[in-house]
Amino acid sequence: MSTAANISGTISVRTTEQGLPLAISVETDELRRNPAELANQIMRLCRQAANRAGLARREELQAAGLTNQQLALTGLPKPEDVAAQEWVEEEEYDEEPQSWLREA
Q1: N or C end of the chain: smaller count of CB under 10 Å?
Q2: Contact at 8 Å (CB) between 11 and 42?
Q3: Each residue's pLDDT expressed in tens, for the chain with a length of 104 residues
Q4: Looking only at Cα atoms, what is the longest distance across the chain?
Q5: 71 within 8 A of 61, measured Cβ to Cβ
Q6: How far apart are CA 84 and CA 65, in angstroms?
Q7: Which residues make Cβ contacts (< 8 Å) with residue 3, sequence separation at least 6?
Q8: Distance CA 54, CA 1 (A)
Q9: For residues 97 and 84, what is the distance between their CA atoms, to the nearest angstrom?
């Protein structure tokens, strides 16, 4: 299991290695967002948590003595792959305001 949260910490998920959500936490203010955007953010965090869980499993197997060839056969993510994907997704899903107008 692994956890991932958005930059502000207002949305977080805990998932299995396969990305199945076990717990989702969404602060009330986030519920005002466009439902599709909120769903996309939750799905992105599920993928992120799953990748992190896979990375942790890879490290466990490596510590247990599996070779790089054996680890490659598992299909588990490599650290550089997880880091690159998270960086790309953070750039794609930045959390800038949708409008500069504020509620009164």
Answers
A1: C
A2: yes
A3: 899 999 889 999 999 988 899 999 999 999 999 999 999 999 999 999 999 999 999 999 999 999 999 999 999 999 998 888 888 877 776 555 444 444 54
A4: 60
A5: yes
A6: 26
A7: 12, 13, 14, 15, 49, 52
A8: 9
A9: 25
- Sheet containing strand 11-15, edge to edge, reads 2-5, 11-15, 21-26
Pairing of strands 2-5, 21-26: unpaired
Instruction: Report which of 23, 20, 1, 2 is spatially closest to residue 86, judged by C-alpha positions.
Output: 2
CA dist., res. 19 & res. 26, Å (int): 17
